């Protein structure tokens, strides 16, 4: 089955007593416009979306007579940076941004992909952070930059 659009999110979708067939997707695959996945029950699913679509946890990909195919975003290894004040957050965001590390800001924290060098830098500057496995709302996309 080839899909060109998301039908909605499972929390707002009437499953009508149908089985939920999970379709797991990695953070890297969430960044792709065209991807081939397999559901937990072995159904092959091709996704070919417009470039502005962001795949989210719980997206309903399709349904048939028996099942609703629901996207399950797999967690990724991230650093959750929560400085104690705005000045430290600005310093951390500026410094990490200079390394062109992709970041999202959620729940009062800066979240980046795990990088041991950045973790070491945060330790050296006494900036509070934790290493976690999370599903972020927007996938971390590397920003290319040429000097």
UniProtKB/TrEMBL annotation:
Any single Gene Ontology cellular-component annotation: cytoplasm
Function in brief: Involved in urease metallocenter assembly. Binds nickel. Probably functions as a nickel donor during metallocenter assembly.
Gene this chain is encoded by: ureE_2
Coiled coil regions, renumbered to chain: none
UniProt keyword annotation of Mitochondrion present: no
GO molecular function list: nickel cation binding; unfolded protein binding
Localization in the cell: Cytoplasm
Name of the protein: Urease accessory protein UreE
SMART domains to which the protein is assigned, alphabetical: UreE_N
Keyword terms, alphabetized: Chaperone, Cytoplasm, Nickel
GO biological process: protein folding; protein-containing complex assembly; urea metabolic process
Location of the UreE urease accessory N-terminal domain: 6-70
Family according to the record: Belongs to the UreE family.
Main location: cytoplasm
Native source organism of the sequence: Oligella ureolytica
Keyword Cytoplasm included in the entry's annotation: yes
Domain of life per record: Bacteria
């Amino acid at each position: 089955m080839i899909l060109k659009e998301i039908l909605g999110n499972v929390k707002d979708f009437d499953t009508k007593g149908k089985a939920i067939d999970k379709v797991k997707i990695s953070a890297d695959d969430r960044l792709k416009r065209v991807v081939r996945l397999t559901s937990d029950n072995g159904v092959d699913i091709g996704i070919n979306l417009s470039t502005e679509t962001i795949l989210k946890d719980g997206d309903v990909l399709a349904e048939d007579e028996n099942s609703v195919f629901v996207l399950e975003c797999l967690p990724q290894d991230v650093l959750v940076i929560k400085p104690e004040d705005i000045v430290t957050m600005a310093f951390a965001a500026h410094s990490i941004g200079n390394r062109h590390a992709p970041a999202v800001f959620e729940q009062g924290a800066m979240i980046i992909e795990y990088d041991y060098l950045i973790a070491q830098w945060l330790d050296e500057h006494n900036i509070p952070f934790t290493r976690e496995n999370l599903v972020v709302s927007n996938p971390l996309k590397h920003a290319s930059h040429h000097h």
